[in-house]
Amino acid sequence: MSGTHEPIVHAIYDLSTGTWQYIVADPDTRRAAIIDPVLDFDNTTSRIATGSADALLQKVALEGYEVDLLLETHLHADHISAAFYLREALRQRQSYAPQCCIGSGIEKMQRVFGDRYGVDEDEWFHAFDRTWADGDSFQIGGLQVTVLHLPGHTPDHIGYQIGSNVFCGDSIFNPDLGSARCDFPSGSAVALWNSMQRLLSLPPDYKLYTGHDYPPAGRLSEEGESKPQPYATVQEHKSSNKHVKMGVLEAEFVELRTTRDGSLREPKLMHEALQFNIRAGRMPKQTADGERFVRLPLRLPESLTAV
Question: Could you tell me if 253 and 243 are in contact, meaning their C-beta atoms sit under 8 angstroms apart?
Answer without folding.
Answer: yes
